[in-house]
């Protein structure tokens, strides 16, 4: 049974998949057995045969050289680019948490270091019918620590601090934060980093620039973020 780390973002499209792919690549290049899992993906694009392509899993597979069947990497794939709870409603395919937990456990058993990507930000409804489930409930249930991906630019102090405050209110351990689309030497972005650290005490553990193909982080440090 391997260790796992949950990746959340300060919002959707913030770069969770992009950075996750670099994390898994980094682990694998160091000879460690890194894997990937995502519970629910919406906004999947169909191929010419109409089969929905789980873009996030395909990206991590390609960048990190995982070579795994995408069926193992994502449990629920929806076409509609809406929150999973709504995509599930539209498609009459509710997210079964027991199935997600079983798929997660299998993925964790297959790899020593499993990186699980969330959907959207930390407050992402997975189910809102006779059951009410938000993504943070699942993270708590799985007992995972969280690494937050935030954009380095304008507005990030607010969204990063709110994400951290919410995780703390839910007693979810925070392993650190990664700044994405960072421009070295940018006065505002460096101040954003300093302000988030000062306001929360959470450390920025890596900086990813536009187009980066490697994650600049010590692999032993990275390894220790998994529990
Ligand atoms: N550092 C970067 N350099 C270049 N492109 C990036 C970078 N970060 C993100 N992107 C691009 O921005 C888009 C959104 O990023 P990504 O898919 O990783 O977001 P996400 O948080 O995983 O979104 P979702 O909530 O849909 O899972 C993608 O096209 C991705 O390739
Ligand atoms: Mg993604």
From TrEMBL:
Catalyzed reactions per annotation: (7R,8S)-7,8-diammoniononanoate + CO2 + ATP = (4R,5S)-dethiobiotin + ADP + phosphate + 3 H(+); (7R,8S)-8-amino-7-(carboxyamino)nonanoate + ATP = (4R,5S)-dethiobiotin + ADP + phosphate + H(+)
GO cellular component: cytosol
Pathway given in the UniProt record: Cofactor biosynthesis; biotin biosynthesis; biotin from 7,8-diaminononanoate: step 1/2
Enzyme kind, highest EC tier: ligase
Superkingdom of the source species: Bacteria
Cellular localization per UniProt: Cytoplasm
Database matches in CDD domains: DTBS (cd03109)
Gene3D superfamilies for this protein: P-loop containing nucleotide triphosphate hydrolases (3.40.50.300)
Chain positions recorded as Mg(2+) binding sites: 17, 56, 117
Principal location: cytoplasm
Cofactor(s) needed: Mg(2+)
InterPro entries xref list: DTB_synth_BioD, P-loop_NTPase
Family the entry assigns: Belongs to the dethiobiotin synthetase family.
Protein name, as recorded: ATP-dependent dethiobiotin synthetase BioD
Gene that produces this protein: bioD
């Amino acid at each position: 049974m391997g260790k796992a780390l949950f990746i959340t973002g300060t919002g959707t499209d913030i770069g969770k998949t992009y950075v996750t792919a670099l994390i898994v690549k980094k682990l694998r290049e160091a000879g460690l057995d890194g894997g990937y899992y995502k519970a629910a993906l919406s906004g999947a694009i169909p191929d010419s045969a109409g089969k929905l392509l789980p873009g996030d899993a395909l990206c991590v597979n390609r960048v990190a050289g995982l070579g795994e069947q995408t069926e193992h990497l994502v449990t629920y794939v929806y076409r509609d680019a809406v929150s999973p709870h709504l995509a599930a409603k539209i498609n009459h395919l509710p997210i079964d948490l027991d199935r997600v937990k079983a798929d997660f456990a299998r993925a964790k058993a297959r790899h020593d270091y499993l990186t699980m990507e969330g959907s959207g930000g930390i407050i992402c409804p997975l189910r809102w019918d006779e059951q009410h489930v938000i993504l943070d409930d699942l993270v708590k249930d799985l007992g995972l620590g969280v690494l937050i991906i935030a954009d380095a630019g304008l507005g990030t102090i607010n969204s990063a601090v709110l994400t951290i405050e919410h995780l703390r209110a839910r007693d979810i351990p925070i392993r650190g934060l990664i700044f994405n689309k960072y421009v070295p030497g940018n006065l505002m972005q460096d101040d954003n980093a300093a302000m988030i650290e000062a306001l929360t005490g959470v450390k920025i553990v890596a900086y990813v620039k536009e187009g980066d193909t490697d994650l600049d982080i010590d692999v032993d440090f990275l390894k220790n973020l998994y529990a």
